[in-house]
Each structure stands twice: as structure tokens, then as C-alpha cells.
Amino acid sequence: MIHIQSFTFNPFEENTYVLFDETREAVIIDPGCSDKEEQQELAGFIASKNLQVKLLLNTHCHIDHVLGNYFVKKQYNVPFLIHPTELPVLRAVKSYSSNYGFPSYQEVLPDGALKDGEQVQFGSTSLDVLFVPGHSPGHVAFYHPMEKFMIAGDVLFHRSIGRTDLPGGNMETLLSSIHKKLFVLPDEVVVHPGHGPVTTVGEEKVHNPFCALPV
Question: What is the pLDDT of residue 19?
Fold first, then answer.
């Protein structure tokens, strides 16, 4: 069984996720911890569960999802992976981080690439990588078919979708990603988004005002 622990970090109220299984191996997805208190909260949880962090993953690289990358990389010295198309988005953060109130942001570059249709592995767990651009050009989601959950980043929210007015965003592309990659999954798949509460694929297919399928 896979355990999912979420934290809400930074002024953007971004959801950071730690996933681990019975082997105690773990991955950290989208660490948004932006100060020492949040860093200690994340590290304290990992220590309390005696977890061995194996990977650092970003669904995408907007500032609110990468503020803790440097801390995680320094603390655990693990491979950091993103989709290669997302690299310019990551590289841009240092140019505007001060404007958003984060002058101490430190850049970390990826060690490897995530590819659509491949898997990331830790312990006895494999997560499918789904390429779902639109909110950002290299956005991915992580899906576990057996346990029917997804770490969705900022593609799909409870009754909402990711914004597309940032550089590299595109509404038509985002809606295509949702309909062709997410809404083809079983209705009971639980969606763990980058902001806000969890939802399900079935809930959003019917009730999401931005992307619900026609009746």
C-alpha cells in the first residue's frame, strides 16, 4: 500500500507530497517549502517515519512548486527529475523570484528527464508518467493504476483547472490534456492536485465548469 502525505506550503498554498510504501522508500513531489519552519516540517515527517528518500520530482516548475528543491536536494542528495520541455520554466524562476518575495531562492537543475509513458520507481512502487501540458509546456502527472490515484499538479483541481495565462500556457492544450489523458481514466481515480482539496476523475467529468464532458 502506498501512503500519501500532503503539506500545504508557502503563500501560494501549494500542495507538496511525500509518497512512500512498506519498504520505507519515498519520493518527494513538488516541494514548496519556502522557509526554515516549512523545511523542518517536511524533514521532521520524513525522519519520524524513518523514510529513505529516493527521488525528487516536479510535476512542473512554476515558482510555488520548486521553492524547496534546493533544500531537498541538499538534505537528501537524490536525483531530481522533470520533463525536459519544462527546463526553460525552471531556469526562469531565478529571474523573477525576488519579485515574488523570495530573494533567497537557489536554483537546482535536473539530473534526469521524465518521459510520457515511462515509469518512476521507488521501493516496490511504480508510478506512470503522464505528459499533460497546457498549464505549463512540460507538465506531467504521476498515476498509479492499481491504487487508482494521481498526483496531478496544476492541471486539474476540484471544480477548476490550471491557469493558462502564464508563459507557455495554452487553454486548448490544457483541455486536450485533461480530456485525452485524465478523463479516460476510471471515474474512481483520486486526484491529488497542486492546490486545494482532493477530488476524483468522475467528479470533475460531471461537475467541473471548465472541462466537464457533455451529457
Answer: 98
